[in-house]
Amino acid sequence: MPTAPRPEQASAPAGLPSIEVAAVGETMVVLCPAPGEPLEHAERVAVSVGGAESNVAGYLARLGHLTTWVSRVGDDPFGRAVVRHVAAAGVRVDQVCVDPAAPTGLYVKDPGPEGTAVHYYRAGSAAARMDPATLADPALAGARVLHLSGITAALSASCRALVEHAVTDRPLADALVSFDVNHRARLWPAEQAAPVLRDLANRCDLVFVGQDEAETLWGATDPAAVRELLPAPQTVVVKDGAVGATALVRDAEPVFVPAPRVTVVEPVGAGDAFAAGYLAGLLRGLDPVRRLRLGHLVAAQALTSSGDNAPVPPWAWFEKLIDAPADAWSPLDLTDPGETT
């Protein structure tokens, strides 16, 4: 895909402090009929907004960190809705380009008895026209973390070039590069995605990957096997749903933290929330155990909410639980109202 002409992009307003986290990726408008109502019979749909990387930025902002979302949207009502939604979460949006020549991406949910199917309308979207120049603005130079995902690499050739540039050339020289593998089978099949995602992940500093997707992509059946496939990053975090998560830090013993019990309302967005919690712990200088605990606790907010970006409790609530003794953490049950206040 040829590199798209770059629209005008605003630099950070004068006087603003340097950002902590720059999250790069596409965010789309989501259309969804009433729960359980098939799309073909729906007379009304709810309009919302969803995107993995902006979800991470939103949770980090709610946790008190200065974040920016880097992307492109169309010059259309959907694009304006996306930008307004992301900004409402407390995320800076001055790194978002408005592209007059391409539309904002869209996806539609289709509930059914076997689960919810998703239909994407994102081919040729404004975000698919991102390229390596997306990271050229000097306002990004002070970021402590650059967060990316494998979704962006699947959108177009220019987007893959952007991710390769970010993880190899390191245009944000002082930033830790965080990468969520986030394989989306509807964007590219596992056999096509597997070598690309492994190569990109292995050039990053911090990698998040689900145990199930690691097995689908690479046949890795446990965290040790994942680490063997990804030896270069400083840290690989393997998430295993309701079981827990393992942090494999170079030259250290693996650390496993079980997930607390929750009543799941909607699983969408929980992985993004976990990544945000872990990154917040990293930015605050917490040890790996507390980073994983914080990841689980933020993920719990997403799991118990119907939206992609749930509200979060005050920091004091998180602090009490991440500092709990091991024998208090293991049986933690967030379905108990007493543990959620």
From TrEMBL:
Q: Which InterPro entries match?
A: Carb_kinase_PfkB-like, PfkB_dom, Ribokinase-like
Can you give the residue ranges of the Carbohydrate kinase PfkB domain? 20-313
Q: Which GO terms describe its molecular function?
A: 2-dehydro-3-deoxygluconokinase activity
Can you tell which superkingdom this protein's organism belongs to?
Bacteria
Which keywords does the record carry? Answer: Kinase, Transferase
Give its E.C. classification number: 2.7.1.45
Give the family from UniProt: Belongs to the carbohydrate kinase PfkB family.
Recorded protein name is 2-dehydro-3-deoxygluconokinase
**What organism is this sequence from?**
Micromonospora ureilytica
User: In the record, what lineage is assigned to the organism producing the protein?
Assistant: Bacteria, Bacillati, Actinomycetota, Actinomycetes, Micromonosporales
